[in-house]
Specification:
With 493 residues, the protein is an alpha/beta fold. Helix content is 37%, strand content 22%. Strands 15-18-19-14-13-21-22 form a seven-stranded mixed β-sheet, sandwiched between helices. A five-stranded parallel β-sheet has the order 10-9-8-11-12, sandwiched between helices.
């Protein structure tokens, strides 16, 4: 059986606990291997390694740091298919999606490598004679990462690549459900020549390893992607230590379909957004806000397409929908379906755990569609994180925007319309960090900021140039070559 170990200070090491956890394939129940379970002491060793390595790494010119990121991109590209296969085996998403996720990491590596020559500051005119004024970016120090299982290589690429090119060191706890792809990602950094101590991988539970990262006094920054509940707890504790926190905490995303929409295009966008990755995306569409004039026709077309979706092992190229991650997620999804029925929503299809056709050993849930859902129902307000979508009828664009904005999350939204005026009104008034016009709620590109408003996050962004603001501090520098004391705001007036 394969055993996966921590990576601390450039070495693969077993935790002193001596304990291991089993990792399984969510599509088949097959045991894939086991993973060391770490302690607070393991986290501290990783922090000390990171602290020592960062002292010299911050002095390496950013273009030189970037050369390693270019190598990471090349290695990811060479191993794209192998990494996609590993990702699908332990997370379950269909292989086409897994390839797309690895490509996202490739794109991010090249993009952030380019930022090695664009860590721009500002030079500004001083208000005093013979004085020079400028600002520069400097690294924060040690970044602690806590990442989820649904995009196990894309999300760590969003975080680690800008952190490293900015001159920081890393201590990373990946999700317990996806340890193998984490190890392979670290091996790519190792192969690319990243100096030891800059990337440290510590496996274990959130209650032990996650808490140890959040609480460690020498970790300067916490970047977390996960649930709103856990994110709030992290923010409270880390904030009490004056640590910077970057939080991305999910969504309750809606696709709005107006009466003038291209319904075939809207159906394509909804199917991909709601049932791709089995609904296990923070950007997944779980609400369909539709104008009452086209509601019946949209329902008919959606049911026709949903009936054609094939469930199965994501390694099968013909499969459209893979498993959900584990049994507890399966049961949570099923519980939400029962809540929807109790609330009076009408179930059009799905609504059950799938145990036939050779799928009984996996964690499969039938793609589910509710209709006549009211905006205040729990299934229309709470994140389900599964292949469940709810149709909410409205009478106007204004009502659609109000319904869209009524939930506590604000990650992604979408509108289908042929009217340019209404499209721009939606772009202005939809209260989400990401807005799509005539596309679904998912499919972000790496060169724009990723994140949301309200309960989705705390104002920071992954991806794009905005990510550099998470991993750098601003330093303002003044050089006075006048040969005398000049007092700003006093001597210039």
């Amino acid at each position: 059986m394969k055993r996966y170990l921590n990576y601390i200070n450039g070495e693969w090491v077993e935790s002193a606990s001596g304990r291991f956890a089993v990792n399984t394939n969510p599509a088949t129940g097959e045991v894939l291997g086991e993973v060391t379970q770490s302690t607070r002491e393991d986290v501290d060793r990783a922090v000390q390694a990171a602290k020592q390595a960062q002292k010299s790494w911050r002095l390496v010119p950013a273009p030189e740091r970037a050369e390693i990121l270019y190598k990471v991109g090349e290695l990811l590209k060479e191993r794209k298919e192998e990494l996609a296969q590993i990702l699908t085996q332990e997370m379950g998403k269909v292989i086409e999606e897994a390839r797309g996720e690895v490509q996202e990491a490739i794109d991010m590596a090249y993009y952030m490598a380019g930022e090695g020559r664009r860590l721009f500051g500002d030079t500004v005119p001083s208000e005093l004679r013979n004085k020079f004024a400028m600002s520069v970016r400097v690294p924060v120090g040690i970044a602690g990462f806590i990442t989820p299982w649904n995009f196990p290589i894309a999300i760590i690429s969003w975080k680690s690549l800008p952190a490293l090119v900015s001159g920081n060191a890393i201590v990373w706890k990946p999700a317990s459900e996806t340890p193998f792809i984490a190890a392979e990602f670290v091996r790519i950094y190792e192969q690319a020549g990243l100096p030891k101590g800059l990337m440290n991988l510590v496996y274990g539970s959130g209650s032990v390893v996650g808490n140890a990262i959040v609480d460690h006094p020498e970790i300067d920054l916490i970047s977390f992607t996960g649930s709103n509940e856990v994110g709030r707890q992290i923010n409270e504790r880390a904030g009490g230590m004056l640590k910077r926190t970057s939080l991305e905490m999910g969504g309750k995303n809606a696709v709005t379909v107006l009466e003038d929409a291209d319904l075939d295009l809207a159906v394509n966008g909804i199917i991909w957004s709601a049932y791709g990755t089995s609904g296990q995306r923070c950007t997944a569409c779980s609400r369909i806000i539709v104008h009452e004039a086209v509601k019946d026709e949209l329902e008919r077309r959606l049911l026709e397409r949903i009936a054609q979706l094939k469930l199965g092992n994501g390694l099968d190229e013909s499969v459209d929908v893979g498993p959900v991650i584990n049994r507890s997620s399966l049961e949570k999804i099923d519980e939400y379906v029962k809540i929807g029925l109790d609330e009076g929503a009408k179930l059009l299809c799905g609504g059950r755990i799938v145990t036939e056709d050779g799928l009984e050993k996996g964690n499969f849930y039938a793609p589910t569609l509710f209709t006549d859902v009211k905006p205040d129902m729990r299934i229309a307000r709470e994140e389900i994180f599964g292949p469940v979508a709810s149709i909410i009828p409205v009478k106007s664009l204004e009502e659609a925007i109000e319904v869209n904005n009524s939930v506590e999350f604000g990650l992604s939204s979408s509108i289908f319309t042929r009217d340019i005026n209404r499209a721009f009104q939606a772009m202005q008034d939809l209260d989400t960090g990401i807005v799509y016009v005539n596309a679904g709620t998912t499919g972000a590109e790496i060169h724009l900021p990723f994140g949301g408003t309200k309960g989705t996050g705390n104002g920071h962004r992954d991806s794009g140039v905005a990510a550099l603001d998470v991993y750098t501090e601003w330093k303002s520098i003044y050089v006075d070559y006048s040969g005398k004391l000049q007092r700003a705001q006093i001597d210039n007036y």
